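Spend some time on the protein that follows and explain the fold to me:
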Amino acid sequence: MVPLLAGDNWGNDVSVQGFEKGPDTDANANFNGVSPAYFATLGVPVLAGREFGSGDVTGGGKVRW
């Protein structure tokens, strides 16, 4: 969603039940949307775990590797 090295980001504030944010609390979580074979496309080796796949969607099955 946000191009690499764009100097930009995308995120939302998060909240945790029972935790009260103070004035100095950074509750923003930054993230990016990627497609299957993201690391392979960039030529980045996956050292642990696995590459993103087409089944990695909201409501998809548990990740097993």
Notes: The chain has a mean pLDDT of 85. Strands lie at 11-13, 28-30. The CA atoms of residues 38 and 52 lie 7 Å apart.
